[in-house]
Amino acid sequence: MLESVGALTASPWIYAVVAASVVLDVFLPVLPSGVLVIAAATAAAGSTTAAGAAGRVPQDVPDILALMVCAAAASVLGDLVAYRLAWRGGDRLDRAIARSRRLTTAQERLGTALTRGGGALFVIARFAPAGRSVVSLGAGAAHRKVMEFLPWSALAAVAWAGYSVGLGYFGGQWLGATWLATAVSLLALFAAGAAAAFVVRRPVPASAR
């Protein structure tokens, strides 16, 4: 399996696979989109370092900027698809959200953030496990205006993509294109996810409702 992932990161198809994974993980949070982004960035960094010493530019590894743009654009696209589906979901989706304490709480926090003119919750939730799904579906189900949702979705996408690619790239620079570098970068990504989940799941203060 490791050999397969390694071969994929050296293929032009890595951009399509990353984009598809990032779009779909708003519906299937178990998809390893973060793992793919970090593995590709690690491979690019390690290969670039080795190639630089040899005096040539590698052609068979992902471009860091293209990888980040691909991941961020796919993240926004997936958010918008989930938002529109939830917007059109009707009573059935409303009942499903009402049965979920997690979704109901997220809607409350989302409404509070937008009412106060801020959407930092969008950015923080992007790092939390399934947080992106909760926020995108919650915004659509609550019929929030697209211009309240889209700018924060874009900011969250850029922050997540930049952080993930940065972890892989600098990990690869320091440790080489190894699975140790990928593992260390993933630990940092999971740590950010745990911190984000803690913030998102905090109870809403009564004074803020």
Low-confidence stretches: 49-58
Radius of gyration: 18 Å
Number of domains: 1
Helix content: over 70%
Query: Overall pLDDT, averaged?
Result: 76
Q: What class do helices, strands and sheet pairing give?
A: mainly alpha
Question: What's the N-to-C terminus distance?
Answer: 48 Å
Main beta-sheet annotation: none
Q: SSE order, as H and E?
A: HHHHHHHHHH
In terms of DSSP E residues, the strand content is under 5%
Number of helices: 10
Query: How many DSSP-defined strands?
Result: 0
State the shape.
Answer: elongated
Task: Note down, in words, how this protein is organized.
Helix content is 77%, strand content 0%. It is an all-alpha fold and 209 residues long. It has one domain. Helix 2 packs antiparallel against helix 3 (33-54), helix 6 packs across helix 8 and helix 7 crosses helix 10 (179-200). The longest helix has 30 residues, at 146-175. The chain is elongated, with a radius of gyration of 18 Å. The chain starts with a helix and ends in a 9-residue tail after the last helix.
Q: What is this entry, summarized?
A:
The protein is built from ten helices and no strands. The chain is mostly helical.
Keywords:
single chain; 209 residues; mainly alpha; 0% strand
Element layout with pairings:
Layout: H1 2-9, H2 14-24, H3 33-54, H4 64-87, H5 90-99, H6 101-115, H7 120-127, H8 131-141, H9 146-175, H10 179-200
Helix pairs in contact: 1-3, 2-3, 2-4, 3-4, 3-9, 3-10, 4-8, 4-9, 6-8, 7-8, 7-9, 7-10, 9-10
